[in-house]
Amino acid sequence: MRQQIVAGNWKMNKTLEEGVELTKAILDKINQPKGLVVVAPPLTHLQEIGRLLSTKKSFHLSAQNCHQEEKGAYTGEVSADMLVSVGCSFVILGHSERRQYFKESNATLAAKVNISLAKGLRPIFCCGEPLNIRETETHVAYVAKQLKASLFHLSETEFRKVVIAYEPIWAIGTGKTASSLQAQEMHKSIRDLVAKKYGKAVANDTTILYGGSCNAQNAAELFAQPDVDGGLIGGASLKADDFAVIVGALK
Ligand code: PGA
Question: Pick from 200, 113, 120, 118: which is nearest to 151 by CA?
Answer without folding.
Answer: 113
